[in-house]
Amino acid sequence: MITPLPPYSAALIRAEKARTMVIADIHIGWEIALSRKGIHVPTQTPKLLRKLVALLSEYHPDKLLILGDVKHTVAKAEMGEWQDVPSFFVELRKHTQEIAIMRGNHDGNLEPLLPENVKLLPATGIALGDVGFFHGHQWPTPAILKCKTLVMGHVHPVVAFHDPAGFRITKQIWVKANCDRTLLTKILLEKHRLRGEKDPETTLWKHYRIKPRVQQLLIMPSFNDFLGGRPLNEKRATGNAKTEMIAGPVLRSNAVDMANAETYLLDGTFLGTLSELKI
Length: 279
Fold this sequence. Notes:
Layout: E1 2-4, E2 11-15, E3 18-23, H1 30-35, H2 45-59, E4 63-66, H3 79-92, E5 98-102, E6 118-121, E7 126-128, E8 131-134, E9 149-152, E10 158-162, E11 168-178, H4 181-191, H5 200-208, E12 216-219, H6 241-244, H7 249-252, E13 262-265, E14 270-273, H8 274-277
Parallel strand pairs: 3-4, 4-5, 5-6, 8-9, 9-12
Antiparallel strand pairs: 1-2, 2-3, 7-8, 10-11, 11-12, 11-13, 13-14
Helix pairs in contact: 2-3, 4-5
C-alpha cells in the first residue's frame, strides 16, 4: 500500500518489513539551463535538501527511493552538478539507512557523481510488495505486472486554472488512472519481444511465473516544485492529436485510461477527472 504525504510530493510505502519514502524528479542543476538564456538564479539545491531532510526527520523511513531525474542535464553532468549532486547525497545519508535511485532520462553520466553507498537501479522498474515503480520514459519490465499499483514520475503533472480576467495559474497534482490489465500485459510482452503463447497471461506465466494483477497507475508530481510542466488539462494549439499525448510510452498506449484519471492537489483535494478539467 502506498500512501501520499500531503502537502508534499512524496509518498510512503510499507513493504518487505521496511518503510520506504518515494519521491521523483529532483532535477538538481535546473538553474544551469536558465543561465544559458540569460536568467541567473542562485542554486536552489540547499532548499530542496532542507525540504527532503525535514520529511525524512518527520517520518523516519528505512529507505529512500528516487524515481529518476536526479540531475537536470540529460547526457552529461555540468560543473555545478559535479558539486551539488555529491554533497546532496552525502548529507542525505545522514538521515536514512539506504538510498536507491531509479535511472531517469536526465541521469546520463550520473554514476561518477554518486557516493558509493547510493544504489542505482534500472529504469525498467522494481517491485516493492504490491507496488511497482518505474521512471516512465521507457517501457517497464513485465515483472512489475504482478503488482496491483504502478507508480511513475517523469511527467511533472500539473493542471492550469484560468479566471475571467485572463489570469492563469498552474498547480502540481497527483494523477490516478485505471489500467487495462490484459492490454498492458500484451503490450509489455511485445515490447520485450516475448510472444507465441495463446494469450498474454499464459506468456507472462511462462517467462516470469507471475499472474498480471495491475489495476491502477499513479503519477507522482515532481519533488522539485520550482519546475514547470505542461498542464494535462490544456490542449496545444497545433490540434495534432499526437501532440496532445503526455510523455512516456505507457501513457501513450491505450492501456491507461487518462481521460477518466482522477486528479488531486498536493494537499489531497480532489479536483475531478482530467476530462472534466479540460480547458
